[in-house]
Amino acid sequence: MDSVHNFRDMGGQRTEDGLLVRRGMLYRSGSLADASDADLRRLSALGIRTICDLRTHQERSNHPDRVPRHAGIRTLHLPVKVDRHDESGLLPRLLWLLFGKARQLDYGELARESYREYVTDFRPQFSTVIKLAAEGHNLPMLVHCTAGKDRTGFASALIQLALGVPREAVLEDYLRSNDHLDDFMDGMVNKLRFASAFGLSREKLLPLFEARQDYLEAAFDQIRRDYGTVSDYLRDGLGFLDEDRRRLRRLLLEEG
């Protein structure tokens, strides 16, 4: 994509039982607000039927998605706004980060706490995403937030784990966001150059813009504490039942 950050196919991974996640069925990305006309043509050619937008109301209002017109795409708004760290309203929030006690915060710990909140506070949103993926009429489907790394990264990880992709491969795929966000990160760091005048270095702020293994591990740890296993979380936390999982696997896995 020309102007859509972190756009990629979720397919191509191998499950623990040797099947492959089908390509061309599930996609993930950052915001579509800056999608070029060429990007819109590509989205249309992919045949996407459903878009799950995990951004907040403010994000959507400030930066509305551009989607192909007359393509019959259904967009569902499933807002995920954590209390401590997210991508929404980032620049205004810098006043909070630059002054007072916030200057002493560990931004990495803020991110880890956000991932724990995904597990505890946003079950309806993530339940809806994975259930939509298990219904053939919603596919192909795109899941996105602002950068496509945190909220989208957690949603993608849940789908991959439900399909039986090994945890190590899920973590590896999650970290691939760092290879697709150079432009996004450079742009944000440039906007934050004035922060150095207040003693906040680029290194101090990087945890806000990177995908890090310990972030997703924090979510897994919360799942272990609250539910035991990911399968238990899917069933008891998200209401994603065994028959839903079997249907998801029928739709999205193939021999290969």
What does this structure look like?
The chain is of the alpha/beta class and 256 residues long. Helices cover 48% and strands 9% of the residues. The strands form two sheets. Strands 1-3-6-4-5 form a five-stranded mixed beta sheet, covered by helices on one side. It has a two-stranded antiparallel sheet with strand order 2-7. Helix 4 runs parallel beside helix 11 and helix 6 packs antiparallel against helix 7. The two termini are 27 Å apart. About 2% of the residues have low confidence.
Shape, per Cα inertia axes = globular
Rg over C-alpha atoms, rounded to the nearest angstrom: 18 Å
Based on helices, strands and strand pairing, what is the structural class? alpha/beta
What is the helix tally?
13
Give the SSE string.
EEEHEHEHHHEHHHHHHHHE
Strand order of the largest sheet: 1-3-6-4-5
Mean pLDDT: 88
User: How many strand elements?
Assistant: 7
Largest sheet: 5 strands, mixed
